[in-house]
Amino acid sequence: MTYDEAKSVLEKNGQGHVLQFWKQLSAKEREALLAQVETIDFKELKRCAAILAGGGAAAAKKGKPTAPKVAQLRGAPLKKAVAAGEKELAAGRVGVLLVAGGQGSRLGYDGPKGAYSIGPVTGASLFHFHARKILALSVRYKAAIPFYVMTSKANYDATVDHFEENDYFGLDPKNVVFFRQGMWPGMTADGKIILDAPGHVFMSPDGHGGMISALKANGCFKDMKARGVKTLFYFQVDNPMVEVADPAFIGLHTLEKSEYSLKLCAKRDPYEGLGMVVKRDGHFDMIEYTEMTEEMNTRRTKTGDLYFKFGSPAIHVFDRAFLEREASKAMPLHLAHKKIATVDASGKTVKPAEPNGYKFEKFIFDALADAKGVSCLAFDRADEFSPVKNAEGKDSPATCRADLQAKWRRQLLKAGVQVPEALPLEVDPAYAIDAAEVAKTGLLLRAN
Ligand code: UTP
To answer: Which domains, ranges and CATH numbers included, belong to the chain?
Structure first.
């Protein structure tokens, strides 16, 4: 993009101030600024500005929210679902989608969160645990399971480097597809793009919901079609306990011909920060925990259970065709009021004491309302969910390592092997991916 082109498009969209320091920029800074302007989607920016102009409040949704039906698979229905999921995996129709473009600000780790060391013995990274599970499944089902990893622009190189340094954790690099999500400029309340340096627009990732448009923009749907992938298992980078592409979950989704399926777990307390899947006005919807009222959080059934009991840790299965259909739609935008460094009239960068600007994000669960079929499956959080969100306290590396080890200890105990609490324990998922395989290892340990 040339200076004249940038000037024209910016002025047309009321953003001419982006070039106000042009004269004082170096050749390199000018080139970088033009490259940034080229990535801005001005149509989407108009949507952001309109939301700000309207006061930022989302339109009220129609219908009273009710709790959805949540399957608890056991016995014959479980066997049936596992068989159906295994059939999909063995036929090579399953792919895995990981969203790893977040900024991990609460953890405060300098690097992609996926490279964070979590293995209690080896110090292996979060990415290690995810990738080794895919490796185990592709060996078990003798089929390729392509792994699509979404990064932000900022953490793309460091993510690819981490996979390369670790030989892709044993996966065939041909089956690992990295792609970048979109970035959006921060805006002031009057809809103006924020410069955080004279030659630099403040930009941030467009949220996990940005995955859908990023899959399209990066040719991933074409890649999936070429590989015969029809079903996608989706998860977040911070939970090393997740059962990647769990056959029962894939099977339930397939048998019920759903377009969007969710694994849900009982909230640890009425106020836990998990999204709540609800049905209203004939559609499924997700209520963010910040939007749950006191009455909704604490409402009880006749038997004393929480009425809104099951929260979503963002473990999903999607139909590829559904995501492709969604990619042609504009997703809702959510705004966050933040402190954003900004340049003053003289070009000096100033750090504000109070929130001064807005970031916009898309959320993956906003696609729920459009799904023609939705399945919900309950799971036991002790076995599958312990995210690394904070540096300390709840949902931190310490709690995650403790939960991982407690799970492996329980599984080994079933095979009669008691591992003392004081002994650090780690199981490589490529060696033993589930309770049955860990138990087999336990029997081997006992035999020796
Ligand atoms: P979180 O909401 O936990 O955000 O993301 P985060 O960036 O990891 O951490 P904080 O809030 O800054 O502390 C949930 C999942 O969505 C991904 C994250 O990488 C994580 O797997 N994500 C989030 C993206 O891929 N892109 C985004 O723009 C935001």
So the answer is: 63-392 (3.90.550.10)
